[in-house]
Write the structure tokens for this entry.
Amino acid sequence: QVWQAVYISIVLVALYPFQCYSHPNGQSSVRAFSAVVCGSAEHHVMLGFGIAFTLLYGVGFYALCLWANLVAPRMSAVSQVFPTYFRFLFCRFRVQRWYWGSILMLRSMSIALVPVSNPDSGKGQLVMFIVVAAVCLVLQ
């Protein structure tokens, strides 16, 4: 369960370089680091790290969890260790719904992408968050 809580935090931090807000003079800055102007050399370095961490942890870890969900029924019957390694994905759910851990991680990633999608509009972010929450409620 800690991994799922940490997942959204790390994805949010990895996406910081993509969250640029506009200034009245036409430039934009990174929301978390207002001294960094978007499009500058410093911002390009931040983008490189942001892309690397997003791919490595955000996408890579999620892909590992998807794989674990796909092979979970077969591997749980064969291996004693497999359910222990991926306990954070399975322990909160009924046996018939073992795959919900990955769905919740997808929800977490979608929530982390909300500030990136429309950084200048709080109303737009609120609408997108409500859509993500509503979709998750309907799925449950």
